[in-house]
Design a protein that fits this description.
This protein is an alpha/beta fold and about 375 residues long. It is about 40% helix and about 15% strand. It has helices at about 15-30, 35-50, 60-70, 85-95, 115-120, 140-145, 200-210, 215-220, 245-275, 305-315, 340-345, 360-375, and strands spanning about 55, 80, 100-105, 125-130, 150-155, 165, 165-170, 175-180, 190-195, 280, 290, 300, 350. α1 (about 15-30) runs antiparallel to α9 (about 245-275). The structure holds pyridoxal-5'-phosphate.
């Protein structure tokens, strides 16, 4: 079979003239850096997450690194992370100087297994990172009960719109770390944010995101002109703040988010109806009233995954594998085996999921999986 020249994309951002106009407006003002649009986005996103604060950052990795820094995590410390997540989660721990300790996962959700995570806690453990994988919420109550007083950091890169027992993702841990990368539910091209209720974290993160400088240029612009150039630097930070161009895109995307996530949920229901009778395929966990997924990804578990992947590709359908268990990467050094994650890895396949998929696309994906198994 010849590969089709038109692919059904795995992920795709949805932009239209509203984002273009929002960017044009910022360019027209002449202020494109950290400034008023970033503040507007921060206020709106904090409200969306039901948190006191949102600190706009350059990407989700910066948000994770910031959360670890705010907790003063460094050499000699350990942080527990789930085995199945993007490398950014564990790299952030490594880059803080601490050691990522990999927990096995729950067999159905593939989120961190609280029971196993609890067994890994020791005197060096300084935090646990809960990744709401694919947008499906981590069992935060179970994780909290094993973590006891340890801080929980939420990796919400997939979770713009995820809700656990009425609480938005990002509002349950000590800090929530979001990514607004191109293919995320809320897409800015690149961007991230740390949300928190902690006043001290908010104040420190605002300085650390801009090299430790205590007063942002925009604020200094707007003060009286005596010593307007003066600022203090008590702690060295990095340069990882959001800027007004990305924030302007984010403000539009935030308005569209609920409708886009609802479209994702509709697509998930169609996939479920079209695939549930295929014995060789297991479907992702269903939403309940208490557990609302942002449906960032639609991950199935499939027999003969590699052949299915090739078959879909030849029919013009992009698929992916999210993710190879992190403990299998050499950069983390020798690691104990994690049987649930390793077993899952052989079977996971991500099907196309984004708000621009048409019903015809969805039918094509379903027909392709069906014809692979049933001819
Ligand atoms: C689970 C997870 N955490 C963190 C990140 C990092 O986000 P960013 O790419 O914005 O740095 C990603 C990005 O894909 C992710 O999937």
């Amino acid at each position: 079979m010849e590969k089709k020249d038109r692919m059904i994309q795995l992920f795709k951002p949805s932009y239209d003239e509203r984002e273009i106009e929002a960017v044009a407006e910022v360019l027209g003002t002449g202020w494109t850096g950290l400034g008023p649009k970033t503040s507007l986005f921060e206020n709106a996103f904090a409200e969306f997450c039901s948190t006191k604060y949102c600190v706009g950052l350059s990407n989700g990795t910066a948000a994770l690194q910031m959360a670890l820094k705010l907790l003063d995590i460094g050499p000699g410390d350990e942080v527990i992370v789930p085995a199945i997540t993007f490398v950014a989660t564990a790299h952030s721990v490594l880059n803080s100087g601490a050691v990522p300790v990999f927990s096995d996962i729950c067999p159905i959700t593939h989120n961190i297994d609280p029971a196993h995570a609890g067994q890994l806690v020791n005197g060096r453990t300084k935090a646990i990172i809960a990744v709401h994988l694919a947008g499906y919420p981590v069992d935060m109550d179970a994780l909290r009960s094993v973590a006891k007083d340890l801080p929980l950091i939420e990796d919400c890169a997939h979770a713009s719109g995820t809700i656990y027992k009425g609480k938005p993702a990002g509002s349950m841990g000590i800090a929530g770390c979001f990514s607004f990368h191109a293919v995320k539910n809320l897409s800015m091209g690149e961007g991230g944010a740390l949300v928190t209720d902690r006043d001290d974290f908010n104040r420190r993160a605002r300085r650390l995101r801009w090299l430790g400088i205590d007063r942002e240029t925009w604020d200094r612009q707007n003060m009286d002109h005596s010593y307007w150039w003066e600022y203090q630097v008590d702690e060295a930070g990095t340069n990882c703040h959001m800027d007004d161009i990305h924030a302007a895109i984010g403000l539009v995307q935030l308005q569209k988010l609920e409708a886009a996530n609802n479209r994702r949920r509709e697509i998930a229901k169609s996939y479920c109806a079209g695939l549930e009778d295929i014995q060789e395929v297991s479907l992702p966990p269903m939403e309940t009233e208490d557990l609302r997924s942002s449906m960032h990804m639609y991950r199935i578990q499939a027999e003969n995954r590699d052949e299915l992947n090739l078959y879909m590709g030849k029919r013009g359908i992009s698929t992916g594998v999210h993710y190879k268990p992190l403990h299998l990467y050499s950069c983390y050094g020798p690691q104990p085996s994690l049987p649930v994650a390793e077993k899952a890895f052989d079977r996971i396949l991500t099907l196309p999921m984004h708000a621009e998929l048409t019903d015809d696309h969805v039918s094509e994906v379903i027909d392709s999986v069906r014809s692979f198994y049933h001819g």
